[in-house]
Each structure stands twice: as C-alpha cells, then as structure tokens.
Fold:
Amino acid sequence: MDLELSGKVALVTGASRGIGLAIAQALAAEGAKLCIAARGQDALEKAAETVGAAGGEVLAVPADVSDDGSVARLVEAARERFGRIDILVSNASALSVGGGREDWDRSLSVDLMGAVRLVEAVLPAMRERGEGSILLVSSVSAIEASPMEDYGYTSAKAALNAYAKKLAVNEARNGIRANALLPGSVEFPGGGWEAMRTQNPPVYEMVRSSIPFGRLGKPEEIADAAAWLVSRRAGWVTGAALGVDGGQGKGIR
Structure:
C-alpha cells in the first residue's frame, strides 16, 4: 500500500533509538523527509545515518523538549531546511518510572508538556495551510494500571490521550488530524526492557507472560502502525488512541 508520504516533511522527537528511530526509518522508507531530534548529539547523528540509509533526506537537530527555546529552535531549523512541517510525531519521553516527586516533574515536563510545546509550535502553520497530522506517542500504561509505582509516567501518558482527542475535535475544521499511539512493552538493544531482562528477571517475566503472544514487541511493529496513522491512508482517523501492544492491554473500551 502506498501511504502517499512521498515528499511530506515529518518532525520526530525522541528519535535517536528505539521506537522514535524506527518511526523515522519507516517514514523515510515511504519517501518522507525527516527532521529528527533528541538530546544526545552523538546518538542522534548515528540515527541520522540510519534514517538516511532508509532512503530519506534527514536533518538531525539536538533538542530538549522540556525547554521552550529549544523547541522553538528545533521547529525553526526544520522549516528553514524543508519549508514546512506536515507531520509531527511527539515521541520524546523522560522514561521516569519511579514513584517520587522528581519522576512526576520529569514525566510532566517531557512527556506531556514537551508534546504541548511542540504542538503549539507547529499548529499555526498547519492551520494556515489547512492540513497536518499530529501523533502523540502514549503508552498502554495510560489505560492499564500495573502494580508498578510509575504514577507520574502513567498520568502523563493518559493526559496525552486526552490531549490528542481534544486536538482532534478542535482542529478538524482546520484540516488537522491528531491521534495517540499506545505501544505496549517494547524491547530493543540498549533499551530499558533489555536491561530489565538481565537485571530484574522476575519483573521482565511478569510482563512477558502478560502478553498473549508471549513476547515483547519490536520497535518496527510500532513504527508500521505509526506510519499508517500519520498518512493520508488514515485520513478519516482522528482522535483515536490506537493500541499496538500484542494484546497486552486487556480492557474492553
């Protein structure tokens, strides 16, 4: 299926590894031009090489989505290079899954307000053009209460779902779609679940066994869904909270 993404410009944050990198690769493979962002410059440059190998024109901009000025510079750099931003994928996460006040602060500042900063920066131009696609990467944790103490993380992700729905309702008249993507537990080299598998096998096994397919997900499986969701092929999908979790989420909604 042609996703009709050729020539589209996508901004993807948290794109130096894992799900964000896989999404950038998937969009590049469909012909999109990419601006990718993350805090670590070395990892980001390596990611740019990987995305470029997928066939896409790519600009790498180190950025901290918890900082207003950094977000403004990121969006401006993308516009200077490509002229516009058609697609925003807000994927940056503090991954602060403890139960302390500092975890709340990091999760709200990065996961939630980082998305707000990015959306507010791209919306005016999208409204002027009368089109745009916004994808907020949430989590299955936003709709499934686990016994972990990741209160701030889950609350921030749940807020992203609500934010996507409100954006969808309010921006449809401007030709802009907004959706949330809810990945389940995903394992990749250097990621948290790979470390959990060796450092805390009981927790890893508890999560693995909760997934009907008997394994954790792969970044590419999340990316394929993301690429479709931001594309014109999903043009009648807005305000959705799409779970891509191998059945990890058990609720009937």
Observations:
- Helices lie at 18-29, 41-53, 68-82, 101-129, 151-171, 192-199, 201-210, 219-230.
